Model the fold of this input.
Amino acid sequence: MTDAHAPLADVLARISELTGRPGRLPDVLDVGDLSYRTGVPAGIVADLLAGRRVPEVPLADRVRQRLEFVRETRRRPDGKRYSLDEMAKVAGVSRQSLTEWHRSSLPKLEHADRLRRFFGLPAGFFTADEAEALCHALQPVVQELEARADPLGRLRESGLVSLASRAHEMTPRQLAALAQMAEVIVAKNGGSGDGADLPEPRRPENG
Done:
């Protein structure tokens, strides 16, 4: 099995460099938000951010833990928990099958993926180990910090800075196209869920 702690250590080192806060990342980053996005308990997230290794959780236990985590943290628009019947409907299985997942068996990939997409969870949410899940969740953090450190970096990589230096040679139409390209590069794209006619989940105000 690949040790995910090594790439995570690289990411943490980069964040420490960009923030100038080595050894204090649990204070710098939002532990609660990272826990919410990864399904990893907040205490484990804090340990990993501090550079500590954590015990490996068996796959079956990890999947069951995150299924329960989703039900506890992703609420209906009215603030209530999704019922087991609603969760089963999203997954495309019977209530009995969903109950078995919590007790002893594992969901099929297609059923787990239906839940993942409905709740807007990242790929591998139910199966990624703790270090891998956190490493993936921190990638946008690194990108945002790097963008702050070098605001023109993404434009420079795309060649737009070089093009902009020749703006005086461009026609109004070419300038408009250049501006549109810049907007596309810096725009952020959102995800979408999947869940038939069930109400979309929301995050509880108190986490």
In short: The mean pLDDT is 81. The two ends are 33 Å apart (CA to CA). Residues 154 and 186 are 8 Å apart (CA to CA). DSSP finds twelve helices and no strands in the chain.
